[in-house]
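Blinded run. Sample ID left blank on purpose so nobody reads anything into the name before looking at the predicted structure. Input follows.
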Amino acid sequence: MMCRRSVLRACLIFHDVMKEEKARGPSAEYCRYLIKPTTVTECLHTFCKSCIVQHFEDSNDCPKCGIQVHETNPLEMLRLDNTLEEVIFKLVPGLREKEQQQEIEFWRRNKSKESPDEDGPISKKARVDEDVKGDGDYHRSDPQIAICLDCLRNNGQMGENIVKGLMKKFIRCSRRVTVGTIKKFLSLKLKLPSSYELDVLCNGEIMGKDHTMEFIYMTRWRLRGENAYPMVLEYRPRIDFG
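Blinded prediction complete.
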């Protein structure tokens, strides 16, 4: 589910891109077409991934505003915007299918360069490398959400059962992170025994381990406006109601 803010942002960016493309004409240096939209975190300008990566091979500055993105490695300051990509695909009918077809044709044209033991458009080794890179990304390219992890103290905790508050209780994580992952994070930070179980609550309601942060924000977090961020999740020792 996409929030209205994401849709509005995508529409505004798409409108600006189309306007600039028309003004610059066919001789434009960058296609600026939002395929795999990638945002420069320093200035929040968004570009086609292949164009901005190619630009940073020769320059460390943003091609739109001129700000220095990074002294030595500007590629570190790029983030894929998957939400924006989905919105763009919805705004341009057939774009997703066109890109997929172009990718298939590309691999067909380069098939002769592949070794005999490769069984598809992308080699097994390439897929393994892709998986390794994906594991190391930890969803950093996903849309992020700010969360406050607050210790719920007024529940009769006594002696060794007391769960302490975090030194740093504000975090940013992927909207796809689940409550189960948050519990593992808390157990690690609080150095709890592996058998120790926690409850995670939002607005006093215990959250299921498979609930994502996005789901909780959209369905359980009732604050809006200035008080909407960060979303507050409370934790406590698990209470057995059986």
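Unblinding after everyone has recorded impressions. The CA atoms of residues 31 and 141 lie 22 Å apart.
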